Amino acid sequence: MSTSLSTYDGAPELTDKQEELLRIMRGLPLRERLLRGAALSDRYTLGAAPEDGKATQPVRSGALKLAEHDAEHGTAAGPVEPASLTANSTLDDLRTYIRQEYAAHRAQTALKEAPK
């Protein structure tokens, strides 16, 4: 599976994103909170070695919580099915899921914000 970083091209700087997320978290729907939290964890740990469990645990946890929510509510947007992810999934598979869902979210947000 792809672990392309282009998903985050144009995303706000990490410190800006974290501050924004903390400021607005209470007002977001649950899925968006899960998605943004997982994407933030993914971005923060990009340089971490996959075998560094302490560094990558937030990615694993975030991806699995998002996938569980998506499987339960039918809200996944990409080709990787949320039910295909388990606690034994590779870090690359979990990151791919986060990134596909984040990319779909950004595309949907851009459509909503486009001038009419």
Please describe what this structure looks like.
By secondary structure, the protein is mainly α. 60% of the residues lie in helices and 0% in strands. The protein has four helices and no strands. The chain has helices at residues 14-24, 30-44, 53-73, 91-113. α2 crosses α4 (91-113). It is globular, with a radius of gyration of 14 Å. The N and C termini lie far apart (36 Å). The model has no long low-confidence stretch (mean pLDDT 87).
Give keywords.
116 residues, mainly alpha, 4 helices, globular
User: Strand-residue fraction?
Assistant: under 5%
If helices are DSSP runs of H or I spanning 4 or more residues, what is the number of helices?
4
Low-confidence stretches: none
DSSP helix fraction: 55-70%
Terminal Cα span: 36 Å
Class of secondary structure makeup:
mainly alpha
Radius of gyration: 14 Å
Q: What is the string of SSEs from the N terminus onward?
A: HHHH
Please tally the β strands and state the result: 0
Mean pLDDT: 87
How would a textbook summarize the main sheet?
none
Global outline: globular
